[in-house]
């Protein structure tokens, strides 16, 4: 869990935010720096790359299965079935785009197959953007807030007691904060937490 010793590393989070993660991804390092870096790199393989290269496609599928297995092991079935509404963070590409990568929704479905999980893709981007990890000029919180919205068709039924926004990497916390604000405005009083496959750590500068 992100606590008082690490929350400052994710400057968009507030001390009251409840965010959980499985692994630590090291920024500025190659995919082969650590198992977590390799996993995240494989999760982020673009759909067009996976389709064009069967080996890369298998790597992405393996990463999704491995991540799904970890979530199923770590999260109690009772909480999934009775207490949680799970909201995947939407991809940076809009629906219909060749590289619209719904990997977070897919790994949630895989993780909790056979359970009565309430998985709702209630968030969507109104326009396509470059993924943050692909650009030095990252989208600002203001710009993200202008294009992230609730999908009215998925945000009609009342949620369960807790809403969990699920994403692959926690970096600044920008996406979670904007998502939490949107969801809390729609469902005031319902706790919104974050669940991440990995949190990003930034090592001191030195030899790679």
List the helices and strands and how they pair.
Layout: E1 19-26, H1 35-43, H2 47-52, H3 54-74, H4 77-83, E2 84-88, H5 103-111, E3 118-119, E4 123-125, H6 141-147, E5 148-150, E6 162-170, H7 174-186, E7 192-201
Parallel strand pairs: 1-7, 2-3, 2-6, 6-7
Antiparallel strand pairs: 4-5
Helix pairs in contact: 1-3, 3-5
In short:
The protein is an alpha/beta fold.
Report on this model:
α3 crosses α5. The protein has a single domain (7-131, 138-201), classed as Rossmann fold. The protein has 208 residues and is an alpha/beta fold. The protein has seven helices and seven strands, in the order βααααβαββαββαβ. The chain has helices at residues 35-43, 47-52, 54-74, 77-83, 103-111, 141-147, 174-186; strands at residues 19-26, 84-88, 118-119, 123-125, 148-150, 162-170, 192-201. The protein is 35% helix and 19% strand.
């Amino acid at each position: 869990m992100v606590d008082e010793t690490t929350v400052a590393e994710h400057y968009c989070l507030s001390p009251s935010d409840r965010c959980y993660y499985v692994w630590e991804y090291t920024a500025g390092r190659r995919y082969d720096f650590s198992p977590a870096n390799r996993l995240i790199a494989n999760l982020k393989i673009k759909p067009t790359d996976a389709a064009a290269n069967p080996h890369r496609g298998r790597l992405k599928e393996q990463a999704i299965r491995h991540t799904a297995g970890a979530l199923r092991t770590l999260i109690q079935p009772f909480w999934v079935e009775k207490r949680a509404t799970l909201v995947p963070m939407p991809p940076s590409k809009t629906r219909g785009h060749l590289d619209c990568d719904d990997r977070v929704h897919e790994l949630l479905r895989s993780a909790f197959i056979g359970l009565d999980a309430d998985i709702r893709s209630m968030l969507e981007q109104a326009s396509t953007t470059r993924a943050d990890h692909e650009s030095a000029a990252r989208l600002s919180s203001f710009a993200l807030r202008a294009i992230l919205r609730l999908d009215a068709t998925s945000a009609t039924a009342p949620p369960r007691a807790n809403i969990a926004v699920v994403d692959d990497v926690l970096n600044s916390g920008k996406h979670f904060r904007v998502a939490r604000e949107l969801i809390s405005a729609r469902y005031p009083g319902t706790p919104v937490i974050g669940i991440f496959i990995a949190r990003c750590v930034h090592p001191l500068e030195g030899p790679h």
